[in-house]
Design a protein that fits this description.
CATH superfamily of the largest domain: Nucleic acid-binding proteins
Distance between the termini: 48 Å
Structural class: mainly beta
CATH architecture of the largest domain: Beta Barrel
Order of helices and strands: HHEEEEHEEEEEEEEHHEEHEEE
CATH class of the largest domain: Mainly Beta
Number of domains: 3
Helix content: 10-25%
CATH topology of the largest domain: OB fold (Dihydrolipoamide Acetyltransferase, E2P)
C-alpha cells in the first residue's frame, strides 16, 4: 500500500482515535485514521455520485450506437461525502494536469460509499450517516478510501418513491426508477438501447402513451423521413412518427425538479429517466451527425471517470437532435443557446459508451432561467 498523502497525515494528527468518539465522526477523520477492515461510522453531506469505467479496446473507427463501445461502465456506483469542501481547491478552475495526482483525487473524493446499481442514492447536499467496513479501494487506478457493506441513513433530505408507490413524474421516484405512465407508479426502467423505441434517443412517438408523464405526442407534426431534420437513428422504423413535447412549455411546470450538472456527470439516474438540469453553457458544438452538443459546466469536476479529462474539458453533456431543430415544428425549432447562458434542459438520460459519459439525449426543450 502506498503511503498516505500529506493532507491526510495532518488530519490524522488532529482527530481523536475512532474508539474515543461516541458519536459518528467526520468522513475526513475516517479517511485519515481508519485501517483496512475497521468497522466505522461517519456523518457528513453528499457532494456527488460517481462511477468507474474501463476501456473496451475500441479502435475508434465505429459509429455511435453501433454496439462497438470504447468504454464500458463497471457495475455499481460510489457515493461521495464529506463534512466541508476542502480548502485550496477551486474545482471550476482546477488545472487538468492535477487530476492525475493521487492527492488531488483524494481531496475531491472525501470518503466513498460502495453502492450497488439498485441501492438507494441519497442526493447532493443530503446529510447522511454511514456505517460499514473501511477499505482502501481502487477507482480509475487511484487508491481511494471507501466504506463497503454500508448502511446509509438519510438524516436530512427527501425520501423518493419506492417501487409501486404512486407518482406524477419520474422525479417522484428513486433515482433507479421511472414513473410508469400506464400505472402512475414507480417502476424499473425498461431496457434502453440506441435503437429502442421506449424513450427513444430521438424522442419519437405515435401517441401520448409513448411519452413520459408531463409530455404529449404532438401528432399534428410528422417528422420527415429524410433530409436535414429527419431522425438521428433508425429512421426506417419511425415513418409517420412525431415528437414528445412538454405538455406546458414552461420550465417550472415541465420540470418538477431541476437537477445539477453533477447529477448528470456522476451517472445518478437510470437510463431512460426524464430529467431537467440547470447549468451554464460551456461549449456549443455542432457534430457531423447533425446533433448539437450543449456542454454544461460542472461546478465540481473532481472526481469523475477517465481521469476527469473529458468532464474538465467538456462538462456535462446534453444533445439536441436534428428532428428537434426543424423550424416547421408548431413549437418552433429547439435552437442552440449561446455560450455563457444559464439554461434548464429537459430530456432523457442515457449512457454513451463511445465517450465514457452519461448524457441527456435528446434535449426536447430548454429555457433560460435565473
Amino acid at each position: 500500500m502506498r503511503p498516505l498523502p500529506f493532507w491526510l497525515l495532518l488530519l490524522s494528527a488532529c482527530d481523536e482515535p475512532l474508539e474515543d468518539s461516541a458519536a459518528p465522526i467526520t468522513p475526513e477523520s475516517i479517511a485519515a485514521t481508519a485501517k483496512d477492515g475497521d468497522a466505522v461510522e461517519a456523518r457528513g453531506f453528499v457532494h456527488t455520485l460517481t462511477y468507474d469505467t474501463w476501456s473496451a479496446g475500441d479502435t475508434g473507427e465505429g459509429e455511435e450506437g453501433d454496439g462497438e463501445e470504447a468504454w464500458t461502465r463497471k457495475d455499481g456506483r460510489w457515493l461521495l461525502f464529506r463534512s466541508v469542501a476542502p480548502e485550496g481547491v477551486a474545482y471550476a478552475d482546477v488545472n487538468a494536469d492535477l487530476v492525475t495526482e493521487d492527492a488531488t483525487i483524494l481531496l475531491g473524493w472525501g470518503l466513498g460509499v460502495a453502492l450497488s446499481d439498485t441501492d438507494a442514492r441519497p442526493r447532493i447536499d443530503d446529510e447522511i450517516e454511514v456505517s460499514g467496513t473501511f477499505r482502501w479501494s481502487t477507482w480509475n487506478d487511484h487508491p481511494v478510501p471507501v466504506v463497503e457493506d454500508a448502511t446509509v441513513t438519510v438524516v436530512t433530505g427527501a425520501t423518493p418513491g419506492a417501487a409501486g408507490e404512486t407518482c406524477a413524474s419520474d422525479d417522484d421516484c428513486a433515482d433507479t426508477l421511472v414513473c410508469d405512465r400506464a400505472t402512475t407508479t414507480c417502476a424499473a426502467a425498461k431496457e434502453l438501447g440506441w435503437g429502442a423505441l421506449w424513450r427513444d434517443v430521438d424522442g419519437s412517438c405515435y401517441s401520448d402513451a409513448d411519452c413520459p408523464l408531463g409530455q404529449t405526442c404532438d401528432t399534428s407534426f410528422v417528422v420527415p423521413d429524410s433530409g436535414e431534420y429527419t431522425w438521428r437513428f433508425d429512421a426506417a422504423h419511425k415513418q409517420g412518427a412525431s415528437l414528445c413535447v412538454p405538455t406546458v412549455n414552461d420550465p417550472d411546470t415541465a420540470c418538477p425538479r431541476a437537477w445539477s450538472t453533477r447529477d448528470v456527470a456522476g451517472g445518478r439516474f437510470t437510463e431512460g429517466r426524464e430529467v431537467c438540469v440547470d447549468g451554464d453553457v460551456q461549449l456549443n458544438i455542432g457534430a457531423s451527425d447533425g446533433d448539437t452538443h450543449l456542454q454544461l459546466r460542472v461546478d465540481e469536476p473532481i472526481p469523475y471517470p477517465m481521469m476527469d479529462a473529458h468532464i474538465y474539458l467538456f462538462g456535462a453533456t446534453t444533445e439536441i437532435g436534428p428532428a428537434h431543430k426543424n423550424p416547421d415544428r408548431p413549437q418552433g425549432a429547439v435552437l442552440d443557446p449561446d455560450v455563457g447562458q444559464h439554461i434548464r434542459v429537459l430530456g432523457t438520460m442515457r449512457w454513451d459508451g463511445d465517450h465514457g459519459w452519461y448524457e441527456v439525449h435528446p434535449v426536447k426543450q430548454w429555457w433560460v432561467v435565473e
